[in-house]
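Could someone model pyridoxal-5'-phosphate with this protein?
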Amino acid sequence: MMKFKYPLAKPIITQDDINSVVQVLKTPYLSLGPKLKEFEDAFAKYIGVKYAAAVNSGTSALHLSMLALNIGPGDEVITTPFSFIASANSILSVNAKPVFVDISPDTLNIDPTKIERAINERTKAILIVDIFGLPNQVEEIQKITKKHNLYLVEDACEALGATYDGKKCGSFGILSCFGFYPNKQITTGEGGMVCSNNLTLLRLVQSLRNQGRSPTASWLEHKILGYNFRLDELSCALGLSQLKRIDTILKQRNLIADLYNEKLKDIEEITTLKSSFNNKLVRSWFVYVVLLKNKRWRNRIISELSAKGIQTNTYFPAIHLQKFYKEKFGYKKGDFPVAEDISSRTLALPFYNSLTKKDIDYIVSSLKFALYKVKKL
Ligand SMILES: *Cc1c(COP(=O)(O)O)cnc(C)c1O
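Reply:
Sure, complex below.
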């Protein structure tokens, strides 16, 4: 693994975080102890939903959501091709078919005006992804799910703290999912959460994550086929500790993103992403991504910045053009032109709360110099 002076992401772990994990190690409860419920309750309260179930990754949260909704072979789920692959994979994991709908070039989220033509009698759900922490156009999408009697599932893994019309992302799906990988707004190492206002579905998720045991059954009684997707107590304690200072974490992330946006706004070769749309869709910055005007510049810029100790990445390649999606479904270039265009021009810059103004100055001037060099070619 190459070491960068400025990595893409870096978790910020405080002494309080460390203490809370060490505290757990001094108890006999390393799994299924008191921290699990404490973390779930605090998380549900923060999102503004009735219930939450912690699991061992965001991918597990999505997988269990599909299972709990009884989505399976023969079913179709509408989703976005511009995402981290786990969102679409969750549909494949239950042997249902992901049906992609292209994105809007402004929000980079699924384009609600293009959804209805993808619906047929096999469609069971719409899986929205709040990409780069920006909420979806919830009202437009809810209109469609109501009209066609579909489930709305939310992959809010990138959007902890984002709001749509004042309400938190992760409160809109019948089931909504979060992930706590180290590059997310808060981390538990690996970890995830399913949120819901539906107690029956949430109980089912709790049973599925724990070998199909019902909450009231004995340890060796398995009512349904389940998994071990449990989140251990150390992770719950870390998540709980980070959630306590979530407002500070998000405020700092906003400041850093605003600083980047301010310093990059006059560079005509770059488009920056907005932090909000009409004050209705308010982003929680997950990664700091800019769009290059010309996709042919990208590889060269990445290597120029890499030589200066600056890690960048190309979030995200379009999912339908990944090898096994092309092979399984026959997708090809041109199927979702907006997603393809955007994904060919994205550049994610280092983004974490310990970046200083000076660091950002260095990264921005290095990017400017790299642009100047590639344009001369
Ligand atoms: C991070 C992320 C996930 C979950 O990832 P895990 O690594 O499994 O926790 C799911 N969907 C999206 C869009 C993500 O960014």
